[in-house]
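Please check what follows.
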Amino acid sequence: MSTPDTKTRILAAAEQVVLERGVPALTLDAVAEAAGLSKGGLIYHFESKEALIRAMIARIGACMQDRMDKLNAADGGAGGWTRAYLGAAFPPPGTPDDQDAMREAALIAALGYDPALLAPYAAQYAGWVGQQRTDGIDPVLAAIVRLAADGLWLNEVFGIRAVDPADRAAVLQRLRDMTRGA
């Protein structure tokens, strides 16, 4: 199997381990087993647990950026970037773009192992905030929408789920409407 395919398989296995067994179970041995590799095969691609978690974080950042770019290009209007952020953070369930589990696993792993590993993602996020300021809508309104979305997303990541599915859909629609001046 080619290196990119193997790396993708390893990252998916690491995400699966975190989601199914929790951060303490994220060991190189557990990931190698879940990926169907020897530990040496895993270490060939990721020399340490820290390197693996860094790659998990990089993958979520790249995935979010790709989705936002595509959604923003398709939208093209004022507030399009903010709507793209909402769409990337909350893709329709069951679609190929539904990366919630992947993002949750990576962030939980980073927070549980070493919060400093989130620094590259934080820098990328700061770039997204910069893009938002020039989105063609009131920057404060755009920030309110983004921060509300972040709160809802974190609510789900940490399993609080204080919002029922119908209210969740209504909240997301209202946030989208706010970016259009409705």
About this structure: The radius of gyration is 18 Å. The mean pLDDT is 88.
